[in-house]
Amino acid sequence: MARLILRKNITNIFYSSLFHSNFFRFYSTYPSSPSKIKIKSNSDQIYDFRSDTVTKPTDEMFDIMRNASRGDDVYNEDESTYELETYIAELTGHETALFAPSGTMTNQIAIRAHLSTPPHSVLCDFRSHIYNYEAGGIAYHSRASVTPLIPSNKLFLTCSEIESELITTDDNHYAPTRVISLENTLHGLLFPLNEIQKISKLAKKTNIKLHLDGARLWNACAETGLSLQKFTENFDSISICLSKGIGAPIGSVLVDNLKKSHLLTKTLSNELLNLGIHVTLPVHTNMIFIDTKSINITTRELANRLASHNILISGNNSTTTRLVLHYQIPPISIEKFIDVVANIIKEKIFLKKL
To answer: Which of 142, 230, 236, 335 has the most CB atoms around it within 10 Å of its CB?
Structure first.
């Protein structure tokens, strides 16, 4: 991505690949090539901070799966899936729901359903999953271009920013904006409901469809205390993931577990800050983005040290990474994590004095 399309009264922005990489480095970390880290301990207890997709199904979940219906979906005989779809539709206040194997698939189906005949384009945050991590699906499936925006507040797109970038002209040199896609949470950051409501009104006024990538919408609900429907009623389509931090489809008890994960995340973030680790984004829910440059260690080195204590994180030769908490991360793992980092710092100070 070399530049932003400039239109109307848009400020001319120098958007080089260097600018993009530097900005993205501090405001995004996604494990592009997950590698298997060797666990040195013989203990069976593993604390996995790499992602909230790593939660493991419980025995109870397996029992439910074994007892699920096995009828044909075309003939509407798969009762378990139908019940799940009906329940989610009711929960979100929408007419129908469709179960699919992955969030990428549901995002792409939704966007394709909104787009009929090119030329057309999708407007989204430049950090969005649909833009960066879905293999160019928007171009491949929907033959659409993308208008990626950088939020000036570094947290979320505002209605005014979106409105200034909409392509509403009938000039055949452009691809009109037909879909606005938001993500909540995005990198663990909450998208304020009042801003969503403003964007929803704008979308309706301009006859543009509004899609939500709500892979971690459960986290937003748990943190704000708002219902799913309070968020989803503003959108024409929503993708909701069942395989992230909640570890199971639905349940108020599980929402409580999410809140506990958020509190643990903030505890870990504060402890890391106290040790001098740079936290590059505010911590709203279950994600911490860190830069280990201050303690002179790469994230791969940190990952290897933590692995000896059965703690897994994503690491590489850079100093930035993402820590993700979920309901299978207990408080004891936070204590171990901090102890490892504190010992690394002590070793660095000792070696510096030699």
So the answer is: 142
